Design the sequence.
């Protein structure tokens, strides 16, 4: 049974009273994962409402050549794959931890029966669903509409931590080769848009970068 004190600290459940939290704890469990471990595979049965509480989780699909196509990286304190659970369909992608992490898994059938009647919970749940739709729209815009230069510019403008990521990891997320990514970074540095500091970069001219993808 999940500790109610941890549940109480999660924004998603902040409006539940002690009795409701105790009831929620009886249908929940916490699981810990090491870096590289898989949370679920594509086509696995989706039975649990999953809340990422620690770590970074990547959601990805695998192409016919067994290459990973990263769809999104989730930070802690967020719901994961709730649309599949809500619709009662298999997971449409796989998920694995890029760091050590943990999740809280909640039996969705019991959760739906006992908690989705609450306006606060229902609103938070569907707000999370709309955020996932926005993530999908961003993936489409980033990887289909934009060329490689605009793709890199947009991503580093909107995700400052990207400048500290390893090039092969960032290249994988942006669906390009590390060599292409390096050429784009060198071009940006030469133009004064970014500057190399130690082993990473900082943005020097965000307005110039923004022009490339707007």
Sequence:
């Amino acid at each position: 049974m999940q500790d109610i004190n941890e549940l109480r600290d999660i924004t998603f459940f902040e409006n539940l009273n002690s009795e409701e939290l105790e009831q929620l704890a009886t249908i929940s469990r916490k699981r810990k994962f090491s870096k590289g471990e898989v949370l679920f595979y594509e086509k696995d049965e989706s039975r649990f409402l999953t809340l990422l509480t620690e770590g970074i989780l990547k959601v990805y699909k695998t192409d016919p050549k067994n290459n990973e196509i990263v769809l999104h990286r989730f930070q802690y304190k967020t719901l994961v794959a709730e649309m599949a659970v809500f619709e009662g369909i298999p997971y449409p992608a796989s998920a694995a931890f890029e760091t050590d992490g943990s999740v809280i898994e909640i039996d969705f059938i019991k959760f739906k029966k006992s908690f989705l009647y609450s306006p606060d919970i229902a609103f938070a749940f569907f707000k999370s669903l709309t955020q996932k739709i926005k993530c999908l729209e961003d993936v489409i815009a980033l990887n289909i509409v934009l060329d490689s230069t605009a793709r890199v510019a947009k991503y580093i403008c909107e995700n400052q931590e990207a400048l500290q990521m390893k090039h092969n990891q960032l290249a994988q997320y942006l669906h390009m080769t590390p060599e292409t990514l390096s050429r784009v970074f060198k071009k940006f540095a030469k133009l004064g848009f970014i500057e190399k500091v130690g082993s990473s970069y900082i943005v020097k001219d965000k307005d110039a970068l923004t022009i490339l993808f707007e």
Notes: DSSP finds nine helices and ten strands in the chain. The CA atoms of residues 149 and 183 lie 9 Å apart.
